[in-house]
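Annotated sample (chain length 154).
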Amino acid sequence: MSENEQQSVFSIEKIYLKDLSLEVPNAPQIFLERDTPQIDVQLNTQGGAIGDGIYQCMLTVTVTAKLKDSTMFLVEASQAGIFRISNVPESELDPVLGIACPNILFPYIREVISDVVVRAGFPPVLLNPMNFETLYQQQKAEKQEQAAGAPVTH
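Output written by the structure step:
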């Protein structure tokens, strides 16, 4: 078999929680509030090589719940995975790390966020399913704009 005919390899080596933070700055008074908070969810992905054919992908989610000007809670979690990826064309590697790997990590981080929020004494926060392909395309476009020197607008 020539090198061009070798089968692509993609396997999960390890999935783990890399970082977790919870803040409830206005406890215990905040638990007396009955209004529905505004929930803001920020999501970020990053990935790269950590060895020969070994890659890490990390999905970070920050959830902030606010009532008027008071923060009810802030949860930030980073779910990571170590993946073995080989015989994948260089042009396809970035989308694998930016789309396929976050899709694998998302159910884990979704559960972590919900569990931590409940343990903090609040109703669960269930993250909506994410389209990582769209997120990947947006991040790619932002990087291209930054590289071109154009101001990035959000």
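Annotation: The chain has one domain: 7-139.
Annotation: The first strand starts at residue 9 and ends at 23.
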